[in-house]
């Protein structure tokens, strides 16, 4: 209940500006968290071991950076978040509405890491095309999406969600079991 109450006044725009613009979003060195996260994701998906028809991103928040390397390995990406304001922010970006957060520095960096010489606009277009559903989720319920996804997902991705919304280790273990279903 306390966690839910804390998120009631969440402002996705302020969150994005605080965490995904300089100085926090500094691409000048791998010692900074943003390029490190992007490299980890790129290397994970480049292995080819994680691929399939559908990927569910558990607790997307208002962000897409975690999906940039994934979009080359899945036909459909399902973003999820507990907060309607985050789902709305993602939807506006997916539709290409003006005034949404500018993810182009992230996309350009991922294209550089992946080293295929792909124009960043092509990756952006591909991700928008594959981000087909943005659904509500509550990882603390036994059926987090409310009903099973059909067909079932081939893979799950969660970047800093479960640990952020779990007040203790037991809650984390339950949330992990819930999303695994």
From TrEMBL:
Family stated for the protein in its record: Belongs to the class I-like SAM-binding methyltransferase superfamily. NNMT/PNMT/TEMT family.
Organism domain of life: Eukaryota
Single GO term (MF): phenylethanolamine N-methyltransferase activity
Key words, A-Z: Methyltransferase, S-adenosyl-L-methionine, Transferase
Cited SUPFAM superfamilies: S-adenosyl-L-methionine-dependent methyltransferases
Organism (species): Trogon melanurus (Black-tailed trogon)
GO cellular component: cytosol
Recorded name of the encoding gene: Pnmt
Entry's transmembrane regions: none
InterPro entries: NNMT_TEMT_trans, SAM-dependent_MTases_sf
Biological process according to GO: methylation
Pfam families linked to this entry: NNMT_PNMT_TEMT
Protein name: PNMT methyltransferase
